[in-house]
Automatic annotation (TrEMBL):
This is Uncharacterized protein. It comes from the Bacteria. It comes from Pseudomonas silesiensis.
Amino acid sequence: MNSIRNLLTQAEVRRLCALDGWHRALEDIALRMESPDAYHEELLRQSDEMDRQGIVSWEEWRDLRIEADQAYLRAVAGEDYH
């Protein structure tokens, strides 16, 4: 990772880390199963924070929120239990 890190700007590294954190939250099966509402709120919180900090564009922010909403609907439908 250090060799790649040297090729990226500080802003690019920050963006990759933020998006990685969002995707890790998206894949948090334990939270998704235990509390779909908290799971959804965390995804939205991270999306909004990336938007607030200018890490993602408006279109990327919108896409993250849509993906969070879809994941929430799958969670409340019990997809993890099938």
